[in-house]
Design a protein that fits this description.
The protein is elongated. It is of the alpha+beta class and about 290 residues long. The protein folds into two domains: about 130 residues, N-terminal domain of MutM-like DNA repair proteins, CATH 3.20.190; about 130 residues, Orthogonal Bundle (Helicase, Ruva Protein, domain 3). The N and C termini lie far apart (about 45 Å). Helices cover about 25% and strands about 20% of the residues. The strands form three sheets. A four-stranded antiparallel sheet has the order 1-6-7-5. Strands 2-3-4-8 form a four-stranded antiparallel sheet, covered by helices on one side. It has a two-stranded antiparallel sheet with strand order 9-10. Helix 4 packs across helix 7. The structure holds zinc ion. Zinc ion (ZN) binds next to loops.
Length: about 290
């Protein structure tokens, strides 16, 4: 599932291909993709417009147009852009096709049908409910150790759930949250406000390091929009994951089998030896 590094990879792949390209026609073959707008209204809003920039906020892609509108796209589980020739056979599950002025087409494929594409006014982006409550970008200047400390200290929720909450930390998903907690030796069920300050600082550094190296390495999915039949999941970087999706396999540090639990409807992976469950230390117990 695409997380911040993957979405960033998609944005960087689309940027040089789309900027300056005019959209001639649009076909929406699955109207729910653009709901609540109708397919016709959506098409009317983008046809004739030129892409000016491709950006990202959290796990949202922002495809800016020169007509004061922006395409806001969330890939969810499996949304994927393809940049192909009009004569190329399209794979299954293509839900939108944008024919461009350079004899190329941008197609949007989504096998899982969870992706979202909305046309919104660019000057209203920051007021959208999807974006206005997002936490600061984890690679940006507002995401400081003090910020993370404040977010974690404010709640007794399990730390893993807080890391996945886009209002607390933007862009992290199941994979990088699991990897970050493994790197600092914190059990995913630990109450957020029970994590010592020094560990929070390490967690902050690890989150940034993991995201940066995943962006550089090309992330866990194949974001190349020109690989039509390409494998979406399981790109090279997935092999760099130390704990995610490794249930039963030996921990890379201590060889204890990695455990998978269900947490907040999601699978969570951790090493019971390296990430021991700390018993909540209330003030009463930690008297000394
Ligand atoms: Zn271990």
């Amino acid at each position: 599932m695409p997380e911040l590094p993957e979405v960033e990879g998609v944005a960087r792949a689309l940027q040089p291909r789309l900027c300056g390209r005019r959209i001639l026609t649009v076909q929406i073959t699955r109207p729910r993709l653009v709901a609540p707008q109708t397919a016709a209204a959506f098409a009317a809003g983008v046809e004739g417009a030129t892409f000016t920039d491709v950006g990202r906020r959290g796990k949202y892609l922002l495809l800016h147009l020169d007509n004061a509108y922006t395409l806001l796209v969330h890939l969810r589980m499996a949304g994927r852009f393809l940049y192909v020739m009009p004569c190329d056979p399209l794979p299954k599950f293509v839900h939108a096709i944008f024919d461009l002025d350079n004899d190329r087409r941008l197609a949007f494929q989504d096998q899982r049908h969870f992706a979202v594409m909305r046309l919104v006014r660019t000057d209203e982006l920051n007021q959208l409910k999807e974006l206005r409550n997002l936490a600061p970008e984890p690679l940006g200047p507002a995401f400081t150790p003090a910020y993370l400390q404040q977010v974690l200290a404010a709640t007794r929720r399990p730390v893993k759930e807080v890391l996945l909450d886009q209002r607390c930390v933007a862009g992290l998903g199941n994979i990088y949250a699991a990897e970050a907690l493994f790197a600092v030796g914190v059990n995913p069920k630990t109450r957020a406000n029970n994590i010592p300050k020094a560990k929070v600082k390490r967690l902050w550094a690890v989150i940034r390091m993991l995201l940066e190296s995943a962006i550089e390495a090309g992330s866990t999915i194949d974001v190349n929009p020109e690989s039509i039949a390409g494998q979406y999941f399981g790109a090279a970087y997935a092999e760099a994951l130390l704990v995610y999706d490794r249930e039963g396999k030996p921990c890379v540090r201590c060889e204890t089998p990695i455990v998978r639990i269900r947490q907040g409807q999601r699978s969570t992976y951790f090493c019971p030896q390296c990430q021991p469950q700390r018993h909540a230390r209330s003030g009463r117990q930690s008297g000394r």
